[in-house]
Amino acid sequence: MIRALALGLLLLAGWEAYAQLSGIDDFILPAPTEVAAALYADRGLLWRNFEVTAAEVLLGIGVAVTAGVACAVAIHLSATLRRTAYPLLVASQTIPIVIVAPLLVAWLGYDLAPKLAIVGLVCFFPVTVTTLDGLAAADPDLRKLMRTLDSSRLQTLRRVEAPGALPALFSGARIAVAVAVIGAVLAEQAGSSDGLGHLILQAIPQFQTARAYAAVVVLSAFAIALFAGLRMAERRLLPWAHRAEGAVT
Amino acid sequence: MPAKGATTIRPEAPVQEPRFAEGPAAGGVRVDGVSFSYRTRRGAVQALAGMSLRAAPGELVAVVGPSGCGKSTLLELLCGLRAPDAGRVQAEPAVYMPQRDLLLPWSSALDNAALPLLVRGVGRARARSRAQPLFAQLGLGGFETAMPHELSGGMRQRVAFLRTLLAGKPVLALDEPFAALDALTRAQTQGWLADALAREPRTVVLVTHDVEEAVVLGDRVIAMSPRPGRDLAEVAVALPRPRSRTDPAVVRLRERALEALA
Question: Exposed site from A106, A185, B133, B135, fewest CB < 10 Å?
Answer without folding.
Answer: A106
